[in-house]
Amino acid sequence: MPDIVSREVRSRMMSGIRGKDTKPEVVLRKALHRRGFRYKLHDRNLPGRPDLVLPARHAVVLVNGCFWHAHEGCPYFKLPATRPEFWRDKLMANRERDRRNLSLLQDAGWRVAVVWECATRKDFDSTVDQLEGWLRGTSQRVDVAWLQAQG
């Protein structure tokens, strides 16, 4: 299926998509702030520059977009029909980088939460509740996704 816009226009559109301060990230951090959590944003000294860093809890929160991080089985992720080889390579490289950064963070002793965009869209209050419970607890890792509630 051919794209409805030129390659140049599509490139300009895609380059305008931000990697930080995305809507899911902003609404999640505002909700956590209202619940009393304080954090740093995008710490350059940590692998992958996590979206939220809570030093007092030795925890980081990564807010992943379902498309850009190729969230398997998610209704918000679909491999584009235009230039599928390019997109498959790009998105799989994103996944591999995510795995590497997650491993580096955990090896450095950080607790890691991965919150998927779908969780912030479908059941926001439960997502924040689950994340709050994890932050107040001691477990090392949590993934928060809408799919988990469905399965």
Automatic annotation (TrEMBL):
The keyword Protease does not apply. SUPFAM superfamilies: Restriction endonuclease-like. The keyword ATP-binding does not apply. InterPro entries: DNA_mismatch_endonuc_vsr (IPR004603), Restrct_endonuc-II-like (IPR011335). One of its GO terms (biological process) is mismatch repair. Its EC number is 3.1.-.-. It holds the Pfam family Vsr. It comes from the Bacteria. One of its GO terms (molecular function) is endonuclease activity. Keywords: DNA damage, DNA repair, Endonuclease, Hydrolase, Nuclease. May nick specific sequences that contain T:G mispairs resulting from m5C-deamination. Belongs to the vsr family. This is Very short patch repair endonuclease.
